[in-house]
Fold:
Amino acid sequence: MTLSLRLLLIGSGGREHALARALAESPSCAALWATPGNPGIFQYAQAAPVSDTDHIALAAWCVQEHIDCVVIGPDQALADGMADVLRSSGLAVFGPSKAAARIEWSKAYAKELMHRAGIPTAASRTFLKSQGQEALDYLANHALPVVIKADGLALGKGVVVAETHEQAIEAFQSMADGLFKEAGNTIVVEDFLRGEEASVFALCDGQDFLCLAPAQDHKRAFDNDLGKNTGGMGSYAPAAVVDEEVMARVKLSIIRPLLDVMSNDGNPFIGCLFVGLMIDNGQPSVVEFNARFGDPETQSVLSVFDGDFAALCYSAALGKLDPSTVQNVAKGVACTVVLASGGYPDAYERGYDVTGLDDAARYARVYHAGTKVHDGHLLTNGGRVLGLSAIAPTIAEAIELAYKAVDCVHFRDKHYRRDIGRRALQRVEAGGLQS
Ligand code: AMP
Ligand code: GLY
Structure:
């Protein structure tokens, strides 16, 4: 049955542009609004005349407009309890409550849950900043490398992989001294995991779940995984490192026990569960959980998704996940290259003219992340400016198309990685699965 849904999307990044397109192109979508939105999102959605930070006013507007389902993109909105306020007004929401989103905004809580549910993850210890001396003694004897994580949300910067004991101690002390404010009041120290990283997104209704195509992100700023960690410089999906066997393990030994323990605690997870994995010899362990879609993985994952995405999210929001809304989670292979402002993830300039998008669209989907329109001109307005997602039958062709699109787009100090998808290509060349 095709529904006729009135939807609101929250967010303003590249991830939300991909969500907006997938929602708007769903047979069940009758109308789509967004706030705060961006110029790309507004190709698919009307601007909702309400701020995303005033949750009460947002809920009132949704009720007045008979919104059937709100899809929440950003982690901060979830951590601030937006889903709770909307649900208490009787609205259906695709996005977890503040208590369930805690798996992202508290790494110590995520560790405690994993421990209780027997989920494979790095061995760890959690310290309060007041336990400084105990932590420093522990770190001084820990095997290297060792990983130090601020407990709370820290814009993706709260993790240090320390190669020496001095670095480990310095990282701990700067977190305890307030580098990430309250996020560093509690600090997790964990073993370093070896292997290849991948991201799996499970759409959850509190009990049941459905996994989208597995993806791989490219977190470092420069080619060959050099430079600083960023929000993500590119992605591809499906990622062949998550083959059927690995995916079966992820479902059975990670997602199923996590959803069970959360629902038994009276804290069911409704929304997109992002499972950040390290895969070593086919054995997946959890590096992190997030309570939302990933960016820029979503741009690749939704580019290959074939189904009624709006109906799928709505069914999950109602607690009755409907897998019949999905034809195929991976129709083809997608490669997304992020175009960033020179200097990102450190300081960068904004306000440069962006041109060539029509040409780029001949090869790839053009997802806006940090752009704005001023006096009829499209300008850069963020660290990550655009994501170009090409879709093809094979990863090799998807990469080629994505870089043809990259060459079409121009703005001053355009920065991008030239090796997005290279690992997947090497896997194909080594005789592994396509993609
Ligand atoms: P997180 O914010 O927890 O995802 O950490 C950011 C990045 O740090 C991850 O994507 C990994 O590349 C790295 N990382 C985090 N934890 C570990 C670990 N235990 N072992 C190895 N690398 C890790
Ligand atoms: N791409 C990683 C994230 O969204 O956290």
